């Protein structure tokens, strides 16, 4: 069962609907309708053939329409399926919907007039066929034949009347114009002439003696006369008074008895011009025959005509569908090429071109315009990409952060330096609001200032940024530099100068003061009573305070004029042990541990300075533990690790003391201290020593409370300045530091 099966009442899926699409169901329905109509038509025609009754025009038209519509619809659906497969083979966009619609529209537009014409022709033919097979048509034909026969009868009756009149005249004037005499012959000739006769014969018939010709005018052919006038005919005339009549296509002859002369007969013949009457009579006879034939074959003719109409209509519709396919292919092919090319352009392929059009119609003009447009787009995009690559190369190469925003303060462009300075975290800043990247920069835009120095709260430590704002109608561009280290260096340089001056001004009088106090004690100490210890305490206080001041001056001197490091390959394990040992002896209540990988962790460094840095860090850790409110034992852990991938060495010192102060970004500044007796120079000296060794130092919170100080050194860089005597140390320190050593890492 498919997942998209349609459910009906009871929750049962329609499997047929999940397997067949609606077009397929319509095709099946049309095919079934065509079969049903064909079967119904067969039974109706079979019943009509049995009864030999013509189908009425309405029934015949309905049968034709009922069979033609499903077949036409099936042809259109087949054309639609063919168009869809052609579109699929051509990889047309939109599943070839335009192709299918054009084929369907063209097919329907052409099929509807064909169907209407066929139905109209069928109705007209059925009406005419039904009329000729009806009793009205038969009556009309019979009336026509009767009319022709009546006209022919009237024509013959005229000559019969002439024959009677001539026989009467001959009988009435037989005495005046005796038959067989010259006078009688002339009289017969005049009668023949006056009556437009072609021939006339007087003859007698006495039975046994046969026929005896008495007088003749224009004698007929003897053979034809003997064939026309026979004893049988004369015997029939003796029994009835009607004349004997016969005719050929061009001759009428009549035999009639002369009144008052029982044995005397008159034969007349005339050539008649009855072509029209004869032709009409023959035509009427032929028409009657054809009409009888038509009546006999009217049912078969009805079936054949409708079958021919159906076949011609189906053939024309099929041809129309094929033409629609060809026309749709011609119209849709360039459109599909344009759609496919447009889709490729939307995906970024500007090198796509459509084939050059072979016609100069609107579609061809559109293809030409599309090629010109994509060519220009490709050229402009290439230029923009080159410019963008140049801008990105320039922006990626500058150390300053650059952010471009639009009028809504949405980031449009940002370089890697800006991302690093603002610690934006994961994700692409482009498209995000500036406030999400830096609330401080966003707040700065609310003012009208163009340049400012602000502090941003980065994830690792606060930074001081010098910001410059450039405004235009499209948006604003912010350019900023991290001046945190610069300010720190400036303060350190200032404090170094102050320390040097303080050390110089204080150290000079310290020695005479100490010597004077010691001399006073030696000279006058014995003169004072032993019970009075005030003088001794005062002189001892002076000497002790001078010693404290001297140590402070020494620290000032160390910070102000730290000697150049002497780089040699040293064992960090030994240096770390010595730094811990000095405090293990003095602070037995604190647990010190040293974790390292083997005893051969070597580093090119100044042993004394690295030892001093570790000593200061451990000293701060001890003081942080002693500053806790509880009296529990503390712990200091030193870890030494190597990173073979980056060829670096890391030293970590972690304690469980009071932790870092709030202003942790100022820990390495000179004279910044949280201790009551601190000078604030210990971590500043550590920072300076680490920088002299091209390393980094970071201060982070220890998990579970306390502080973790991490120093990282690059072995490759330190090995490059290993001189053994420190002669090239200045050159090494003057070299530009890589980004890794200049950026602080947690």
UniProtKB/TrEMBL annotation:
Q: Is Acyltransferase one of the keywords UniProt gives this record?
A: no
Q: Where does the record place the region Disordered?
A: 723-746
Asked whether the keyword Transmembrane helix is assigned, the reply is: yes
- Compartment list: Cell membrane
Q: Which InterPro entries does the annotation name? A: HAMP_dom (IPR003660), HATPase_C_sf (IPR036890), HATPase_dom (IPR003594), His_kinase_dom (IPR005467), HisK_dim/P_dom (IPR003661), HisK_dim/P_sf (IPR036097), NtrY (IPR017232), NtrY-like_N (IPR045671)
**Membrane spanning stretches:** 24-45, 57-79, 100-125
Q: Where is the HAMP domain?
A: 329-382
Identify one Gene Ontology CC term for this UniProt entry: plasma membrane
Q: What keywords are assigned to this protein?
A: ATP-binding, Cell membrane, Kinase, Membrane, Nucleotide-binding, Phosphoprotein, Transferase, Transmembrane, Transmembrane helix, Two-component regulatory system
Any Pfam family from its record, for instance, is HisKA
Q: Which residues form the Histidine kinase domain?
A: 501-717
Membrane topology, as annotated, equals: Multi-pass membrane protein
* Top-level taxonomic group: Bacteria
Enzyme Commission number:
2.7.13.3
Instruction: Describe the reaction catalysed, as an equation.
Output: ATP + protein L-histidine = ADP + protein N-phospho-L-histidine
- Molecular functions (GO terms): ATP binding; phosphorelay sensor kinase activity
Predominantly, its location class is: membrane
PANTHER family, per database record: PEROXIDE STRESS-ACTIVATED HISTIDINE KINASE MAK3, SENSOR HISTIDINE KINASE
What this protein is called in its record is: histidine kinase
């Amino acid at each position: 069962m498919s997942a998209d099966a349609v459910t009906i009442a009871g929750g049962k899926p329609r499997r047929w609907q999940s397997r067949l699409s609606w077009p397929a169901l319509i095709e099946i329905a049309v095919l079934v309708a065509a079969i049903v109509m064909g079967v119904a038509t067969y039974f109706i025609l079979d019943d009509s053939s049995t009864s030999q009754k013509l189908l009425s025009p309405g029934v015949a038209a309905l049968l034709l329409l009922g069979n033609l519509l499903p077949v036409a619809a099936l042809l259109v659906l087949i054309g639609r399926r063919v168009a869809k497969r052609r579109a699929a083979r051509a990889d047309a966009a939109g599943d070839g919907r335009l192709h299918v619609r054009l084929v369907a529209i063209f097919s329907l537009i052409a099929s509807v007039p064909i169907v209407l014409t066929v139905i109209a022709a069928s109705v007209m033919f059925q009406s005419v066929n039904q009329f000729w097979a009806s009793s009205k048509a038969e009556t009309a034909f019979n009336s026509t034949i009767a009319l022709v026969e009546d006209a022919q009868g009237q024509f013959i009756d005229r000559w019969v009347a002439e024959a009677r009149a001539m026989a009467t005249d001959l009988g009435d004037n037989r005495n005046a114009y005796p038959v067989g005499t010259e006078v009688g012959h002339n009289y017969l000739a005049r009668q023949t002439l006056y009556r437009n006769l072609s021939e006339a014969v007087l003859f007698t018939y006495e039975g046994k003696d046969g026929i005896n010709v008495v007088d003749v005018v224009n004698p007929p052919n003897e053979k034809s006369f003997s064939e026309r006038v026979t004893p049988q005919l004369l015997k029939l005339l003796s029994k009835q008074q009607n004349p004997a009549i016969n005719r050929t296509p061009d001759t009428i002859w009549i035999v009639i008895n002369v009144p008052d002369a029982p044995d005397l007969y008159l034969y007349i013949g005339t050539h008649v011009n009855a072509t029209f009457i004869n032709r009409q009579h023959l035509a009427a006879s032929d028409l009657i025959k054809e009409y009888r034939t038509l009546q006999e074959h009217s049912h078969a003719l009805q079936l054949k005509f409708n079958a021919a109409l159906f076949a011609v209509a189906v053939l024309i519709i099929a041809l129309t569908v094929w033409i629609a396919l060809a026309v749709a292919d011609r119209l849709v092919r360039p459109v599909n090429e344009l759609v496919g090319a447009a889709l490729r352009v939307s995906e970024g392929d500007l090198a796509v071109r459509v084939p050059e059009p072979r016609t100069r119609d609107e579609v061809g003009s559109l293809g030409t315009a599309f090629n010109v447009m994509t060519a220009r787009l490709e050229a402009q995009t290439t230029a923009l990409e080159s410019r963008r690559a140049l801008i990105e190369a320039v922006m990626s190469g500058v150390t300053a952060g650059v952010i471009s925003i639009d009028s809504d303060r949405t980031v449009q462009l940002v370089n890697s330096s800006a991302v690093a300075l603002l610690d934006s975290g994961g994700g692409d800043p482009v498209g995000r609001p500036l406030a999400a990247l830096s609330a401080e920069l966003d707040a700065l835009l609310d003012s009208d200032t163009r340049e400012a120095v602000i502090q941003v709260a980065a994830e690792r430590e606060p930074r001081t940024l010098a910001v410059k704002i450039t405004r235009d109608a499209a948006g604003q561009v912010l350019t900023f530099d991290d001046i945190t280290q610069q300010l720190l260096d400036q303060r350190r340089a200032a404090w170094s100068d102050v320390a040097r001056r303080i050390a110089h001004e204080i150290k000079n009088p310290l020695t005479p003061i100490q010597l004077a106090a010691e001399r006073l004690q030696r000279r006058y100490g014995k003169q004072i009573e032993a019970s009075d210890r005030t003088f001794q305490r005062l002189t001892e206080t002076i000497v002790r305070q001078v010693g404290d001041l001297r140590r402070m001056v020494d620290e000032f001197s160390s910070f102000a004029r730290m000697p150049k490091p002497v780089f040699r390959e040293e064992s960090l394990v030994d240096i770390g042990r010595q730094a811990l040992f000095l405090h293990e002896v003095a602070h037995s209540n604190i647990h010190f541990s040293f974790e390292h990988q083997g005893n051969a962790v070597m580093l090119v460094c100044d042993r004394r300075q690295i030892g001093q840095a570790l000593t200061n860090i451990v000293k701060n850790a001890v003081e942080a533990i002693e500053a806790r409110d509880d009296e529990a034992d503390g712990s200091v852990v030193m870890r030494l690790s190597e990173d073979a991938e980056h060829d670096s060495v890391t030293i970590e010192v972690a304690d469980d003391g009071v932790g870092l102060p709030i202003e942790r970004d100022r820990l390495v500044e000179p004279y910044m201290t949280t201790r009551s007796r601190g000078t604030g120079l210990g971590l500043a000296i550590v920072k300076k020593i680490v920088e002299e060794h091209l390393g980094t130092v970071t201060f982070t919170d220890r998990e579970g409370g306390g502080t973790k100080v991490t120093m990282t050194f690059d072995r490759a860089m330190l090995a490059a300045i290993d001189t053994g005597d420190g002669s090239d140390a200045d050159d090494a320190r003057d070299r530009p530091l890589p980004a890794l050593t200049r950026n602080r890492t947690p």
